[in-house]
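Hello again,

I reread your note about wanting to compare the complex against the isolated chains. To keep things tidy I'm splitting this into two emails, and this first one only covers the full assembly. Below are the input lines as submitted, including protein chains and any nucleic acid or small-molecule components. They are followed by the predicted structure of everything together. The single-chain runs will come separately.
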Amino acid sequence: MEADLILKKLKEKFAAVIIETEKRSEKRCTATIDPKAIVKVAEYLYKDEGLRFIIASGLHTRRGFEIHYHFSFDTSGLILNIHVILNNENPSIESLSNLFNASNWIEREIHEILGINFINHPNLEKLISEGNWAEGVYPYRKEFK
Amino acid sequence: MGFKSYCFKKSLWVFHFGGASCNNCDIEILDCLTPRYDLERFGILLVGSIRHADVLLVNGSINRKDKDRLLELYQQAPKPILVVAIGACGCTGGIFAEGNTFAGPVDKIIPVDAYIPGCPPKPEAIIAGIVKLVKSLP
Amino acid sequence: MSKKFLIPIGPYHPLQEEPELFKLYCDGEIVRDIKWETGYNHRGIEKLSESKTYDQVFFLVERICGICSTSHPFAFANAVEEIAAVEITDRTKYIRSIIGELERIHSHLLWVGLAGHFLGYNTVFMWAWKYREPILDLFEMITGNRNSYAMFKVGGVRRDIENRMIEPVTKILDDFKKKNDLLTGAVMDDPVIHARTKGVGVLSRQDIIDYAAVGPTARASGVAIDVRRDDPYAAYPLVNWKVITAEEGDVFAKAEVRLLEMYESISIIEQCLQGLRKEKEGDIQVKVNEIPEGIGTGRAEAPRGEVFHCVFSDGSNSPLRHKIRAPSYSNIATFKKSCIGQTISDATISLAAVDPCYCCTERLAAVYDSGSGRKLYNARELIGLSADRTSELRNKNDLK
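Full-complex prediction:
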């Protein structure tokens, strides 16, 4: 499956929640979506299209907290980034861990480093910060002027 | 013969503490025990408990979580014990010294008897370091 | 009524050289639940990376893990070259693949040895680690260091493999092949290893998909994913090789996949060495002017599976955010599936079967005499000593 095809399918199925799409090459593309729809989109990608969840990257920018969920389609080497932007006050998003176990750890990690709350996560306890930095300290958050 | 050299005149038993390291020093330490370098022929043995050990090998940068455990291990160790800091990270913190969880190089936490620098030090360097240390004992 | 009790493994113990803590909740001899405690190895590499320039980050990512010290720079180079839209030369591709495959051989041998050690079968440990030494010598000949090779940079490699080196490298590989036959035969036919590993720590296809496990762990359960084939990079599309899979999903299948992969690696290296002869010597670098704004995702197949790097660039000379996903991050979580319900003695080898690397998962010193303050060796002398040793190795193989 090439970038054009997966973006077309996403647009057809989730027209209401897709904010923006970007194709960087035949094998790399990004779709920015409404954070509320993340579970539905992930379920479609994982169950219907058979994409593999690689990892999620969380980062703090001027726009707020951004998460890129990276999905891989292994037969064609495609990487699809599902991109969401959360606001600065009380960032929270639905957890994907009830869909597949692969996202369990990374959501715990993002919770520790950025303080994003994952709703309905089965076990949102500390992963790496215990003993290393205090609760309520988020080392990857930035100060913007 | 001084007290210390009396204590360490027989086969040294070694306990290995790998801190927040990149694994290179760890595998080079293990490499010393395998056939090409074969330190076991001198009775140098990796032991499972610090309470049996004569030498504590520490490698890797020490993060805040490791720090308490390293102190505890040092307190549990039978004295006298030789502490050897291995690798650039063990000696100074190396590339990770600027990290947000770094808790200071080994010698800021426990007294260190010998430093073996290198990233990672070759097995020959580790062996040479230990030999120098044992020779220099009072 | 039986009582549940807790058996801790770790954090510091000689079973595995890295710090980690497993808590096995046992009922008699049967493991009922398992918890993993981590953070002993956290160094904040992703944060450090934001404060370094692209050239410096290579030295940092190399030190994520000493065993996969090529795979991380490989993936990072792929990611940055994607942002900068750089096409590297064929000679660079061959050199990168050679280093990557040599690393796979040394890492798989290391695993076979440690697996033997976990089973209490130290003969295999000593044997495998003895045969690993010639591969490390090869590394020292080519790159100047046994581990942490510092070969990669944006748009190229730092050192060339000159054509006169091809012959001695081939010779060492040929010698190694015979030893590898011996080792593979001995491990695959050993009744003790069969008894201890067959049917132990089984991961089904569905478990692999659920946990998104990668690399030999996935391939041993019949999920044929390999980044080298699926998302080709470097010289892998230019040479012939095949993806090794097995169906059983137990520890033995994982060992089998790794042992057979070493043969594929040797074959890839030999083809790459032939490829080097066709390319012009010294053509190992393209000029990269600047890294524009954008997102780059790079992947590489490490010995343990897919390494994934995502670099967010804002057009400055250091990354805005650098996300690293090492293969063990996905693979270690499968412990919950493979260990529960087994005996404690089988749990250790099941834990080891995915070749866990905790360094991956978490992510020049001057020498003074502390008494007198007298310098024992200065940096130049130390480098000199190291260079002597490298040239000694090269001389041994008639390379002046």
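For quick reference: Chain C has two domains: 41-363, 367-400.

B.
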